[in-house]
Amino acid sequence: MSRKFSFTVQYSVPVEELHRALTNDEMWQARFEGASTATLDLSHPDGPGTICIHMTEKAPEDQIPGIVKKVLKSELQLERTDTWGPLDGDTAKGSFHGKSGGITTEMQGTFELRPAAEGSELEATGTVDVKVPLVGGAIEPLVENLLKKVMNSERKSVENWFAAQNA
């Protein structure tokens, strides 16, 4: 059985600037700089102002929760693909798909980027499904929290990238 989720990440920058950063190769390359266990593949199949970001990363052993370690068949490899469409007025839509190796997990959903009172916000809505008998339901909230942590880390990277661009 899958678990539905929805959460919002607040950004201090306007929608146009945030969209420009999220579809910028240099921002993503800066985000992954020094990540020795990660790979990054960027493409623009739908033209300028769009992007497809394919990321993989080996999870550090010391950051894997105990319940997950007990059911791992091999090392935990995480894979995520995000796509962003063009800015349409003051909103942009995207999608994400994630899965893992070592434990059968699948996550998918949509993004919506829109204005907020102070800057912009990115809403992620989707489902996560962990196909492990008995404990899958206990692991699904951990996967959702991992996505929240990653997206908040991406927010910090984007805002640091903006600061460096304006320095």
SSE map:
Elements: E1 3-11, H1 15-22, H2 25-32, E2 38-43, E3 51-58, H3 66-71, E4 77-84, E5 92-101, E6 105-116, E7 119-130, H4 136-165
Antiparallel strand pairs: 1-7, 2-3, 3-4, 4-5, 5-6, 6-7
What structural keywords apply?
167 residues, alpha+beta, seven-stranded antiparallel beta sheet, 31% helix
3D architecture notes:
The protein is α+β, with helices and mostly antiparallel strands. 31% of the residues lie in helices and 39% in strands. It has a 7-stranded antiparallel beta sheet, covered by helices on one side. A hairpin with a 2-residue loop joins strand 6 (105-116) and strand 7 (119-130). The termini are far apart. The mean pLDDT is 89.
The quaternary organization reads as single chain
Tell me, briefly, the overall form.
Answer: globular
Hey, roughly how much beta strand do the residues contain?
35-45%
Sketch the major β-sheet.
7 strands, antiparallel
Q: Helix count?
A: 4
Q: Estimate the mean pLDDT confidence.
A: 89
Radius of gyration: 16 Å
Biggest β-sheet: strands ordered side by side in the sheet: 1-7-6-5-4-3-2
Q: What's the order of the H and E elements?
A: EHHEEHEEEEH
| Terminus-to-terminus distance | 48 Å
Low-confidence stretches: none
Structural class: alpha+beta
- Helical amount among residues, as a percent range? 25-40%
Number of strands: 7
Summary?
The chain is of the alpha+beta class and 167 residues long. Helices cover 31% and strands 39% of the residues.
